Amino acid sequence: MSDFSNTKIAVIGSTMMDLTVYADVLPAAGETRFRDSFTTGFGGKGANQAVMAARTGAKVTMITGIGSDGFGDESLANFKNCGMDTSSVLRLPTHTGVAHIWVDGQGQNRISIVPGANFALTPQDAIDQVSKLKDVSVLIAQCEIPQEVTLAAFRTAQELGITTILNPAPYQPLTDDLLELTDWLIPNEIEFAELDKTHRAPDSDEVIASLRTNGRTIVTLGSDGAALVTTDGAVKRFAAKKVSATDTTGAGDCFIGAFAAALASGATEDSAVQFGIDCATKSVMRKGAQSSYPKLEEIDFSLIAK
Q1: CB count, 10 Å around CB of 50?
Q2: Which residues pair with 97 in a beta bridge?
Q3: What pLDDT digit, counting tens, does each position of 256-283 carry?
Q4: DSSP per-residue string spanning 177-210
Q5: Which is the catalytic residue, given 125, 247, 253, 278?
Q6: Is 69 labeled as catalytic in the residue annotation?
Q7: What does the DSSP 8-state code read for residue 149?
Q8: 206: buried, middle or exposed (CB in 10 Å: 19+, 13-18, 0-12)?
Q9: Which of 58, 221, 225, 254 is the most buried (most CB within 10 A)?
Q10: 3-state DSSP call for residue 103?
């Protein structure tokens, strides 16, 4: 059993309430169908990644905006229940972000996001909150808050010697400034193709290795695991166990939270990637995002090598 209790990371990003409908067949335009399964769950890419990191036993500071509504109250309570530092959770005079999610019979999802308080965060908020961090070794961000907020956070993190991880999801064009401040870029296959200058899919090692000249890259490949670009520009592929997926919502976030916690704990890059894949694989066998993530006693710390 590996002990992450002295590992400290921070996440700046989104908090959402996920409103999810499960249906074998999703309704077509203009069509109404009865369905018997609906859930309300905690989500948002930032919150998801923070919760998974906290599940490993790491100490996690969440930097986010929530609304002055009931969903905000519930989200704050959730962070506290997960043992996170909530001193950088900002209550803002708007609604908490919501995500409307439809999951079909194959476990594939479609998601509509209304950002709310996530888009009310400012670059000054990021500077203020990141500047307060003590003994944090890794900061994670995504693209569900304004990019200038992430840029301000990463700039401050770099000044403090904190390693930065950017999950470019949902995809949006990234500024050169932000990419330069990103130590680890972790897209999935779709985001990779958007980031590639000629929109190639990550089908070959050559294409994967060519995405960046500075900084590190990991591409998450769903049921095929992940690919890591090593410091010498080679590509290492890591397989995932074959399982029957129930719901893939939040699996990429699960990988990133687990990988970041492992990396911050001093794990080797290879073992951190395999650890992330293992946690994400466990998550797709259950419904929901955070609700599907493995708990401490379900996590395989034997994968961690220092």
Answers
A1: 32
A2: 16
A3: 999 999 999 999 999 999 999 999 999 9
A4: HHHHT-SEE--BHHHHHHHSTT---S-SHHHHHT
A5: 253
A6: no
A7: H
A8: exposed
A9: 254
A10: strand
